[in-house]
Amino acid sequence: MSQSPTPSSASSHPPDGGLPAWPTRTGPAVAPSEDSFSELVRGICFKTGPPRTVGVELEWLVHDAADPLREVSADRLRAAHTVLKDLPLNSLFTVEPGGQLELSSAPAPSLAVCVEQVSADMVVLRGALAALGLRVTGLGTEPSLPGERLLREPRYDAMERYLDRAGPAGRHMMRSSASVQVCLDAGYEEPGPQGHHRRWRLAHLLGPVLVAAFANSPVLQGRLTGWRSTRQSLWAAIEPGRSAAPPLDAEPRRAWTERVLDAPVMCVRAEDGPWDAPRGLTFRDWVRGGGPRPVTEQDLAYHLTTLFPPVRPRGHLELRMIDAQPGEDGWRVPLAVTCALFDDAESSETAYRLVKPLAERATGGPAPHNALWRDAARSGLADPELREAATACFATALQALPRLGVGEELTAQVDAFAERYTRAGRCPADDFLDTCLDIRPGRGPAEGPAAHGTVRGEDAPA
After folding, report:
1. Is residue 268, in this structure, part of any structural domain at all?
2. Structural contact between residues 461 and 238, judged by C-beta atoms closer than 8 angstroms
3. Most buried of the four, 110, 183, 193, 370, by CB within 10 Å?
4. Distances in Å between the alpha carbon of 328 and those of 70, 118, 119, 179, 321?
5. Alpha-carbon separation of residue 306 from 11, 163, 199, 264, 458 (angstroms)
6. Domain count, the chain
7. What is the CATH number of the domain that holds 426?
8. Which of 405, 434, 407, 404 is nearest to 420 (CA)?
9. Do the Cβ atoms of 315 and 185 come closer than 8 Å?
10. Could you tell me where the Low complexity compositional bias lies (predicted)?
11. Does the residue 53 lie in any domain?
12. How many other β-carbons are positioned within 10 Å of the β-carbon of residue 419?
């Protein structure tokens, strides 16, 4: 929920609490209208052009270096943030509401440069944390009981109150989740394998494959949830007005514009007092005069930062469905695989053919509120069709990486991940589960990271 990298075709991209740059207007000022707001959304959310640059956002949970189950106090986290914010990094450093750390890379001209720059930043970040007795952990959800919300700002106060209306899933997402978000250029204006319409569709069909292959959050608040990706199940439990994708078969700009205007308003910025929005107010209602005050273009910019679909167009495409990954450099694998399947033209066409049949399972609603996305989050690659698609996609990506100028080390890392997990029908969550469960029939959790909790039903993470 903070700054995204800005590929070359996108406008400047601030933190979620900030405001994007709008298209330059000429001529006399006019009062905003529904048509003018629609024009703004269409103009800033799909910046088309040759796919050239790549970025990544890495969210991390923060744990005690000696005892990862020991609660890290809010005062200790705040003290660490004071030190970390002054580190000499290429990436933007920010803090999430629950105290998670995030690095948002600068837009890089290639996958190799992106990996090199962010890897260097991670060395600096880990070193600074180690000096404080802390470490970052790559898991999609916090396995222990979380502490208080660290950030107390009007935006996050209003967000939590809004999300609480639909249940605790939004609160868990804010305080207890972490991800790897891949940012890619939207693509050409013209039709074709690298056109923005095709890349938009590919992102939504490949999305559940990425969820399943990189699922890494089977535990939440000390309890096994029954999901390989509890983090993804939390997003699906948030009300669709906030988290659902627009209709996939519609023209992307038009569909997203309608989605933005019809989405509920989460908060109304104010000089003083709470930022709570009236219940049931959509942005379209506000534009038509139904809000607490006249709406402005800055309100639209802010509204865009409060929408959380699995693929968010912010000039570039922001793929938000991948759990944080284990290990010091596990994040490199989903970044490399995703970039290879999008930015190598041959692989992009192959990947689209591989995942296109999955659309038949995407029944019951838009992503992530449908059967395909739920199956991916619950079963990971234990789902045979997702395992087949993921295995083929990894093979395609491995063929593409040399063409993208990637070195042998990263290619070998992707291949090792595929051998350990994808080809075996496993995901990182399965490693975590192996440490938590005694697999003999009739036994519950064994000693391990989740042993102090109980096994819950499949639909209980929220």
Report:
1. no
2. no
3. 183
4. 21, 12, 9, 14, 20
5. 18, 11, 23, 10, 28
6. 1
7. 3.30.590.20
8. 434
9. no
10. 1-15
11. yes
12. 11
Question: What does the alpha-carbon distance between residue 399 and residue 348 come to, in Å, rounded to a whole number?
Answer: 12
Contact 53, 7 (CB under 8 A): yes
Q: Answer whether 277's CB lies under 8 Å from 162's CB.
A: yes
- Cis peptide bond N-terminal to 368, omega within 30: yes
**Residue 439 C-beta-side C-alpha neighbours within 13 Å:** 6
What range defines the domain where residue 430 resides? 35-263+307-436
Rounded Cα gap, residues 389 and 346, in angstroms: 17
d(CA 62, CA 72): 8
Q: Are 371 and 377 in contact (CB under 8 A)?
A: no
Spatial separation of the C-alpha atoms in residues 376 and 228, rounded to whole Å:
8
Q: What is the DSSP string of 203-259?
A: HHHHHHHHHHHT--B-EETTEE-S-SBHHHHHHHHS-HHHHPPPPTTS-HHHHHHHH
Q: What are the start-end ranges of the H helices in 344-383?
A: 345-355, 371-379
Amino acid at 270: A
Total residues found in the chain within this entry: 462
Q: What is the pLDDT along the chain (462 residues), one digit of tens a residue?
A: 343 444 433 333 333 444 444 444 444 444 678 999 999 999 889 999 999 999 999 999 999 999 987 888 889 999 999 999 999 999 999 999 889 999 999 999 999 999 999 999 999 999 999 999 999 999 999 988 766 777 778 888 888 898 888 899 988 888 899 999 999 999 999 998 899 999 999 999 999 999 999 999 999 988 999 999 999 999 999 989 899 999 999 999 999 999 999 999 999 999 888 999 999 999 999 999 999 999 999 999 999 999 999 999 999 999 999 999 999 999 999 999 999 999 999 999 999 999 999 999 999 899 999 999 999 999 999 999 999 999 999 999 999 999 999 999 999 999 999 999 999 999 999 999 998 754 333 333 333 333 333 333 334 343
Q: Quick one: which of 229, 233, 243, 235 has its CA closest to 139?
A: 229
Query: pTM value?
Result: 0.89
- Cβ–Cβ contacts within 10 Å for residue 273, how many? 7
Q: Please list the alpha-helical segments (H only) found in 238-331.
A: 240-243, 252-262, 283-285, 297-304
Report if residue 382 sits inside a domain.
Answer: yes
Residue 82: what residue type?
Answer: T
- Integer-rounded Cα Rg, in Å, for the chain is 21
Q: Centre a 10 Å sphere on the Cβ of residue 103 and count the other Cβ atoms it contains.
A: 24
